[in-house]
Amino acid sequence: MHQFDIISGCVLFTAFAVEFVFILLHRPSSNLLKDIGANFVCGLCIILAGIIEKSMAFVFFSLLYDVAFFKPGLSPMLWIAGFFSCDFIHYVYHWVGHKTRLFWAAHVTHHSSEHFNLSTGLRTNFIHLFYRFLFWSPLCLFGIPPTMILLFESISATQNFLVHTEKIKKLPLLDWWFNTPSNHRVHHGSNPEYIDKNLGGILMIYDHIFGTYAKEEARVVYGITHNIHTHHPAKILLQEFATTSKQVSQIKGWKAKVKYLFSAPQE
């Protein structure tokens, strides 16, 4: 696991560095360079927080795995079940992140850039790491080993970073099945027909099943419907939390507050 993370980190850093050189060769605007800089700061935060989160997740997963309902031995079938289960949880977690104000407060960071390149993959809010792993934890009770979950999560994170590019166009044989750059460009679109689409982690299967799949057709307009127009990392990470907290404080009654937090956000 540790070796995979090191190799994965080297691959991601190399890909980011190579793309950044190509961006510089095309004389980018100051706005794009500021955006990349802000994304890089967010990425450093997520890497540092990830070291802590992965240890927390492993301990918590292990505690649940110790009292699992059953523990099947390692086999090809268990690996297959683990892969599809983890990818399904990713879909559910991602869906919740788009459909509730409570979880959108952190996830909006990733969608708030009006550009789309590998640095956008780094533009993730570290706060969500401290509760994200809870969504995967029930799998441990059904015999999926903690190390397997963490491995698939690392693979998914690596793949999800690499799809943040406009350099790779449509891939007709793969787009239907996998989360490709084309599918993920759609996911980052603020076009009405693209909002809340293509939520899958590695696979697009669950998007097809639940009706959230959309092909890349119209030109993608990146960002959110109320762009924040800032490159300040702290504002990028915390602005939606501040807005949500202010609005919740103005609502009377805890039931109404909870209802608001779990209502659909403005994307």
What does the main sheet amount to?
none
Helix and strand content put the structural class at mainly alpha
- Total beta strand runs: 0
Number of helices: 11
Brief write-up:
The protein is an all-alpha fold. It has helices at 2-25, 30-66, 76-99, 101-111, 129-132, 138-141, 146-162, 181-187, 205-210, 233-249, 254-261.
Question: Can you offer a commentary on this structure?
Answer:
With 267 residues, the protein is mainly α. Helix content is 60%, strand content 0%. It has 11 helices and no strands. Helix 1 runs parallel beside helix 7 and helix 4 runs antiparallel to helix 10. It is globular.
Topology:
Elements: H1 2-25, H2 30-66, H3 76-99, H4 101-111, H5 129-132, H6 138-141, H7 146-162, H8 181-187, H9 205-210, H10 233-249, H11 254-261
Distinctive features:
267 residues, single chain
